[in-house]
Design a protein that fits this description.
Distance between the termini: 33 Å
Radius of gyration: 23 Å
Order of helices and strands: HEEEEHEHEEEEHHEEHHHH
Largest sheet: 6 strands, antiparallel
Structural class: alpha+beta
Strand order of the largest sheet: 6-7-8-5-10-9
Shape: elongated
Number of strands: 11
Number of helices: 9
CATH superfamily of the largest domain: FAD/NAD(P)-binding domain
CATH topology of the largest domain: FAD/NAD(P)-binding domain
Number of domains: 2
Strand content: 15-25%
Length: 328
């Protein structure tokens, strides 16, 4: 993607610290080292701890501690393959990656291979009594996990894999709850949040990257259709297509995280397939954001022109309810 952008002439400035964003009626921009740069629009994708959010929408959500956290780590498959006690996690992964889940009480441990066994990703949900802090990722020691699982019947089997975790690639990630933002766009309509800056997804929801890509696809499509002279309208349409859907998925992710935390299937035993089977909602997974945007663009435009409510068509089935109207 980076190389393609350069090939088509997109100018990129990497490693720049943005001091401030600004917005006028006909343009907007950023200030870097006192230099004012102009643009037709700003799409801010600077993450859950967004530095630009409060400037764009004059609002920043207050995180709430959920009472849970997750140890997270990445291990090279090569080191595991050389360990007879650990290589069980790699069996069969050369043709198809695998996902193993173990539940004991209110603790869950997940092991997953990636890139056909080239990497092993694991995480462990656990109770967490820390108050909300600004820094999400806290360095941790893999031995902390051993203290949690030491009484499990499969403790040695799991520890054989976990002990290969490099200390510099191991974190303890507290889960926060954040309410959906009321809007993603600035007052004059030329600046917009996207990705985690607009909608926070906990890892248990499993939709952070997907929803960020949908944001990018819809925003780009709306800008292409509307043209350079209609940037504020393009972003307004993009928000009304994306905001209801992302909010619905965000809330669904919160419930999925709670469901993982409340699982209590009992002690895992050798040969047990303790795999959680949560429903996969078609309206989330069978979705083409570009085709949907192209089909709905004129519908949203007409709703804006007439001042009527736009009813999104991509959140059907949420809670078994009819989709609610969104006031433009």
């Amino acid at each position: 993607m980076f190389n393609h952008a350069r090939e088509i002439g997109v100018k990129m400035h990497l490693g720049q610290e943005i001091n401030r964003v600004w917005e006028g009626k006909s343009s907007c921009g950023i200030i870097i080292d006192g230099k004012k740069l102009h643009a037709d629009c700003i799409i801010s994708c600077d993450g859950v701890h967004s530095a630009t959010r409060s400037s764009i929408i004059n609002h920043s959500p207050t995180p709430r501690a959920s009472g849970y956290a997750a140890y997270r780590a990445l291990i090279e498959g090569k080191s595991i393959a050389e360990d007879p006690e650990a290589r069980w996690i790699l069996e069969g992964s050369e043709s198809r990656d695998k996902f193993e889940v173990f539940f004991v009480g209110d603790t869950q441990l997940f092991l997953q291979t990636a890139n056909k066994g080239a990497e092993v990703i694991w995480l462990c949900f656990h109770k967490d009594s820390r108050p909300v802090v600004d820094e999400s990722n806290t360095p941790a020691n893999p031995n902390d996990v051993l203290n949690i699982i030491k009484d499990w019947p499969v403790a040695q089997k799991l520890w054989a894999v976990i002990r290969h975790t490099p200390s510099h690639k191991f974190i303890d990630y507290p889960f926060f709850d954040r309410d959906p933002l009321p809007t993603w766009r600035s007052q004059k309509g030329r600046m917009m949040l996207a990705g985690d800056a607009a909608h926070y997804f906990s890892p248990g929801g499993g939709q952070g990257a997907s929803q960020a890509l949908e944001d990018a696809n819809v925003i780009a499509t709306c800008l292409r259709i509307a043209g350079r002279d209609n940037v504020p309208v393009a972003l307004q349409i993009a928000e009304n297509i994306r905001h209801p859907r992302a909010t619905a998925v965000q809330l669904l992710g919160h419930r999925a995280t709670e469901a993982w935390q409340k699982q209590n299937i009992g002690y895992a035993e050798e040969g047990c397939a303790n795999i959680a089977k949560f429903p996969l909602h078609d309206w989330v997974y069978r979705y083409d954001s570009q085709s949907h945007c192209e089909a709905e663009f004129d519908v949203v435009m007409e709703a804006i022109r007439t001042g009527r409510a736009y009813i999104p068509k991509d959140v059907d089935g949420m809670h078994g309810e009819e989709p609610k109207a969104c006031r433009l």
